[in-house]
Amino acid sequence: MTSNSRVTALLLSILLFVTIVPVSVLGDEGMFLPDTLNQLPLKRLQQKGLKIPITDIYNPNGPSIKDAIVIVDGGTGEFLSPEGLLLTNHHVAFDALVAASDASKDYASNGYLAKNRSEEMPARNYTVQITQQLKDVTAEVLSGITDATSQPDRNAAIVANSRAIVAANSKPADGITAEVVPLNEGLSYYLFTYLKLRDVRIVYAPPKNIGYFGGDPDNFEWPRHCGDFTFMRVYVGADGKPADYAATNVPYKPAKFLSLSMGGVKENDFVMVMGYPGSTRRYRESYSVAYNQETALPFQVDVFSKQMEALQAAGKADRELQIRLQSRIFDISNTLKDLEGSVLALRRVGLADQKRTNEAAFTRWINEKPDRRTKYAEVLPSLQKGYEELQKAQPRDSLVQQLGGFSDVLAIAGIVGNVAGEKEKPQAERNPNLAMTALRARAALPEIVADRIPVFERDMLSFYLRKAAGLPAGQKIEPVEKRFGSLSGDARIRAEENFARVFVESKNFATAQSISGLFDMTTAQLRQLNEPAIDFAAELGALSSQAVARTRTFNAIVGRWRPLLVRGMTEMRSSNPYPDANRTLRFTYGEVKGYVPHDAAIYQPFTNLSGVIEKDTGREPFDVPEKLKQIYRARDFGPYATPDGQNVPVDFLSTTDIIGGNSGSPIMNGRGEQVGIIFDGNYEGLGNDFFFNEAQGRAISVDIRYVLFIADKFGGAGYLLKELDIKNAPASLRRAA
Hints:
Layout: H1 4-20, H2 42-48, H3 54-57, E1 69-72, E2 75-79, E3 85-88, H4 90-99, H5 107-110, E4 112-113, E5 121-122, E6 128-136, H6 138-141, H7 151-169, E7 176-183, E8 188-197, E9 199-205, H8 208-211, H9 215-218, E10 230-236, E11 250-251, E12 260-261, E13 270-275, H10 286-316, H11 319-349, H12 351-367, H13 370-376, H14 379-392, H15 396-405, H16 408-423, H17 432-451, H18 454-469, H19 478-484, H20 489-505, H21 512-518, H22 523-529, H23 532-573, E14 586-591, E15 606-608, H24 609-615, H25 626-634, E16 649-654, E17 666-668, E18 674-681, E19 699-703, H26 704-714, E20 726-727, H27 731-736
Parallel strand pairs: 12-20
Antiparallel strand pairs: 1-2, 1-6, 2-3, 3-10, 4-9, 5-9, 6-8, 7-8, 9-10, 10-11, 13-14, 13-17, 15-16, 16-19, 17-18, 18-19
């Protein structure tokens, strides 16, 4: 049997192996760390169309494209001028538009134009983060860990060492933050430092029927005709340091900003992307793929489907609420379609079976040599056992956690019950952590009550109780069965719905003051209120704690054995895989290319303004703005027209490897000039957090010419062109700028 110390020694040996093997490249697949670009097949990239040296993309000793690419909220953005002008997606900036909107001014639907800098609108709660440094700190993170270090002590040492590195590299007064992140399941560790800027403002956002034209029906689909972009500007204090919003702040001066190319792209052109992809899981074992495909993802699909239905219903009767919910509904809708497409893709390609085939080959490879058996024989059996234990409590544990966490008010009801129970104990036996939790909960009550949507909570609680009723016999949830288990059919449904209604209509949970008063009551006083939700929530809290404990146990198992699986697979294949995405800066490349989605269909890689007009129905989400239709009819395309003067380029496809988080990333030509902005992937490419679909997976970008066309000819923001460095611009555009 492999001991903990033996596992530690193996992980330490991995580090030496990883650092000497060039990064592996599979077609156009890969999200590469900037400091590994010199390991890519440069001659091949140059043959494809790369025209600039790698140091123009990433240079640790001077300005490079890396310095123009930033984190904006949940996406990516890029600097386009020396005055802090930033381009990102409309959907990335959407939360800021919603936050600034009300019934009298719906910027989320109608867009926003600042006619001058004094009108640039604060993007509430938005920040911009710029990568300053990235560095392999594996040796420092694992410092002090030896063969004799136990697994718990090893984990504690990694946490302590990582915190020390973060503390040594953070400079709060200068706005510098730091984080240490594991790569490839902890085979290596990297330090990233960021400059965090807090004053971000909206300059120009097109209306929703351009920025999100096609809505959910077109989301993840091709052909696409969406102008998904927004201009923002980043400000700092007069001293050049990060600062909160102030009228006296000045535009940030980036170390690097991108040039734009009006030259466009054609099929098979080389393109490249830099951005901050969120998360991938491409090196997971077959058990993980099967669990996600058959259990975890379908459960999430059910939950998100109901959440969207309930939120849409809540907004129908309240216009103010409908405006406030736009961003939340968009996020849920986007996630839901992604999850549904991912489940379909995993089943269609048979990824779990592919993984099983690879693991069978891995097992044969292990058995060829005794030293391999010593290192890796326990890996797959241990992971399999971990998933078997996990499945015994699923989907029950997931449902328990959803029930306990979907409503802040219901969760607080559980805390109230626990606090009352603590009062009956001697002082020395009381839980100090619970007292602190209660203090924080009471302090948050005004905000919680203000944001509460009772009808949504009612519908979701009824939904979760229905899901609980359908659990198999061995997975029933005790607090639910205690209240409804003796009932069946319509009688049980009515009882569940009444329980949910009574909870949301209770005067005891109606205001911050009334809820706060519950914390001062004894158990006997609470019983007199006859509030069934209090005991129910407290009982759920106990079950949720048990579910969390089981999750920790499972995570410890995969945390121990999964790195060895990645290590063994790497050794077997004699390759060093690029690390999974984890919201750090990455580089990817590909070519402009269409695809075959299904039998008897071929998708070309370009769409035009004529396609926007063809989709017009006059109703959301295909309601083309009247002004845009007038421009089209007049063929008033200016310098943004196609060569024949009869159209304007809108969107295009590429084979670049992107995922959520890449939204807003610049897509550049071989000279490093921005030709478009990433905003989506296609439906056939979903599941790309688990695998890359080279034949059908495509990134969708807005052509930079459509961005400029909408800003100038439609939006009245043409004055921004004066700030931009535009290459290949027609003489008329150069004169105008």
